[in-house]
């Protein structure tokens, strides 16, 4: 049984679909701070399989202990946390408490219950600004530019220290690049609260008319068209990466090996903001009005993954391209507005 914290969120929900489809049983802990309980029924509809959800907080050790007592948890995939970069500068204490303290509580409960297998949602943000692209896992990490990024960096450090202290743990840090897209069914996807910070939800909301226009943050970056370049990955590909990470942990456990591994999950290809806008317009045959706006504070020119290590060691390869990402994001947005 796999405990999935934050399992009803954007990446968690897609991962649960892949886990259930690959024969894993799951149980979820989510406080619903950034999602709603109806995501459970949508996952059930997609997979035809049911699973238990505990509504509660990763800060609540008593509840976490109860989950471990009531279920035989073999491994944890830990998504739960706050993730809005801008907000993290406004309410940093909430970010450190939720993300760092919440993770510490979870780790203490895991240890007390002798569960030492963990997949953690890290982020490409831990690389900070780097001169050399694509990014390899071995790149020396630069200071993240905001409290959110620092929580990810701190948790990575905590997990590295934990593994050093007891190398019977099996820990995989997955550094996600930019997940976009949605499940093909259109039933689950990213549903941001309020005004979206991220590019793709802003594009889909502009295309549907909720937003007047997209602000393209800067066209004077050192990139092929001047707009920022990122490594966008379809959320379903990203979700599959978690199943492969668990498979690796199971294999290592069978051989009585502990490990701490770090993998980039990205496609290895960088696209600019205008590449995304133009592909979205073309494949969906819909307009996305935009204006060129000033740069957004803290943004960097370019960031994309070297995905070789995940390919070699996990067998991870992205199957979906930018057109799929744009089509599936749009399909989800249209479904949201129809229902
Ligand atoms: P999300 O907000 O959709 O999902 C997070 C889930 O965790 C939500 O369902 C929320 O209700 C729950 N949650 C938050 N705090 C909690 C707490 N204290 N206790 C219990 N549940 C809690 O976010 P997501 O995009 O699915 O991201 C999942 C993870 O991946 C996060 O840790 C995020 O930082 C990380 N990540 C996301 C991205 C991205 O672009 N989406 C990129 C890199 C890393
Ligand atoms: N971006 C933009 N307009 C928006 C949101 C984002 O031009 O409304 C740009 C942003 O400057 C960056 C890229 O889109 O170059 C991806 O931004 P996002 O916030 O989605 O992800 P990030 O890479 O910052 O985590």
Task: Briefly say what this structure is.
The chain has helices at residues 10-21, 38-47, 61-70, 85-90, 92-112, 147-165, 199-208, 235-254, 273-284, 308-314, 322-338, and strands at residues 2-5, 26-30, 52-55, 75-78, 117-123, 170-176, 178-180, 214-217, 229-230, 232-234, 259-265, 271-272, 290-293, 302-303.
Bound molecules: nicotinamide-adenine-dinucleotide, uridine-5'-diphosphate
Class computed from helices, strands and strand pairing: alpha/beta
Shape descriptor? globular
Helix content: 40-55%
Query: Could you tell me the radius of gyration in angstroms?
Result: 19 Å
Number of strands: 14
Keywords:
339 residues; alpha/beta; seven-stranded parallel beta sheet; three-stranded mixed beta sheet; 11 helices; 14 strands; 42% helix; binds nicotinamide-adenine-dinucleotide; binds uridine-5'-diphosphate
Task: Describe this protein's structure.
It is a single chain. The chain has 339 residues and is of the alpha/beta class. Helix content is 42%, strand content 17%. The chain has eleven helices and 14 strands. The chain has helices at 10-21, 38-47, 61-70, 85-90, 92-112, 147-165, 199-208, 235-254, 273-284, 308-314, 322-338; strands at residues 2-5, 26-30, 52-55, 75-78, 117-123, 170-176, 178-180, 214-217, 229-230, 232-234, 259-265, 271-272, 290-293, 302-303. It has a seven-stranded parallel β-sheet, with helices on both faces. A three-stranded mixed β-sheet has the order 12-9-14. It has a two-stranded parallel ribbon with strand order 7-10. The chain is globular, with a radius of gyration of 19 Å. Bound molecules: nicotinamide-adenine-dinucleotide and uridine-5'-diphosphate (UDP). Uridine-5'-diphosphate (UDP) binds at residues 178, 197-199, 202, 214-217, 228, 230, 273, 296, 299.
